Amino acid sequence: MMENESNVTRYKTLEIDGERYRTTFNKKFDLRKPYEPVNPKKVIAVIPGTIVKLEVKEGSKVKEGERLLILEAMKMKNDVASPLTGVVKGVYVKEGERVPKKHLLIELA
What we know:
Blueprint: E1 12-16, E2 19-23, H1 27-30, E3 42-44, E4 49-54, E5 61-62, E6 67-73, E7 76-81, E8 86-91, E9 98-99, E10 104-108
Antiparallel strand pairs: 1-2, 3-10, 4-6, 4-9, 5-8, 6-7, 8-10
């Protein structure tokens, strides 16, 4: 009797703290996105919403904690503050624009 290829278990190697393990992964694990460390120079939308007001423009000098823009989400206005002191390198949104979660709003230099 021939063995069906779809029934064959395919093992992979997982390494944790220098120890190697032979295991199987599900499809969700194989398709996961790799971890990316947070870049404080990139201001990203943490929730979807609408840009109500821009407080800065390209070239503006900002201090840590200073308001960059107001993002409205679920009828609440959220202040988006600068994570560090610097200069605005780029503004990637306009007032009235709807943005999804994880959208790049402003980049600092």
